């Protein structure tokens, strides 16, 4: 069973951008005016390649066998037992092998999100004699305590650490990481470059 984590905001905005691009490409083809249309298509192509590589493709995927880190131009697979440690700053850094580090592109924590998490984790001071806030159920209270002071990136980092420790307890083999190029991102980038060349040559 796979679990994927990504930036929801970037993902939604990327699909909005793709819808915008689809409409503009149709309009440029329907009302083709020569070089001006090619230049506009080239600009849209370059921006779309960037949006795809940076906003749509990156994801952190949990599988039964290990962790898959999909970054803009590379995909790294780490068996759970291979993971030595996990640290979280603005990104999740997965330490493995001979002092190697996999930096995951998503989820990331901004300074604003971290400050908000720290405020959420701080104890609230009650003002007045009467409680005005609604009482949380036991499950809601445990969820609040679990996330107290943590960002989404912190929580995902904890999940990676727990799975790695469980794999080591089961004495799973720590096989080396597997890294492969992202051919889809490269293809999109090549198509964008081809549009730029066509706009310059024609």
From the structure above, extract its key features.
single chain, 202 residues, alpha+beta, 2 domains, three-stranded antiparallel β-sheet, 51% helix, 19% strand, PH domain-containing protein, membrane, CFP-6_PH, transmembrane helix, transmembrane
Q: How would you characterize the overall build of this protein?
A:
This is PH domain-containing protein. Keywords: Membrane, Transmembrane, Transmembrane helix. It comes from Nonomuraea mesophila. It holds the Pfam family bPH_6. With 202 residues, the chain is of the alpha+beta class. The protein folds into two domains: 1-57 and 183-201, no CATH class; 60-120 and 138-181, no CATH class. Helix content is 51%, strand content 19%. β6 (92-96) and β7 (100-104) form a beta hairpin. α1 packs antiparallel against α2. It is elongated and about 65 Å long.
**Which blocks of ≥5 consecutive residues have pLDDT under 50?**
none
Distance N terminus to C terminus? 50 Å
Q: Which strand order do you get reading across the main beta sheet?
A: 1-2-3-4-8
* Main sheet makeup: 5 strands, antiparallel
How many structural domains does the protein architecture include?
2
Number of strands: 8
Proportion of residues in extended strands? 15-25%
H-E order: EHHEEEEEEHHHEH
Helix content: 40-55%
Based on CA atoms alone, the radius of gyration comes out at: 23 Å
Report the principal-axis shape. elongated
Quickly give the structural class: alpha+beta
- The number of helical elements comes to 6
**Average pLDDT level:** 87
What oligomeric arrangement do these chains adopt?
single chain
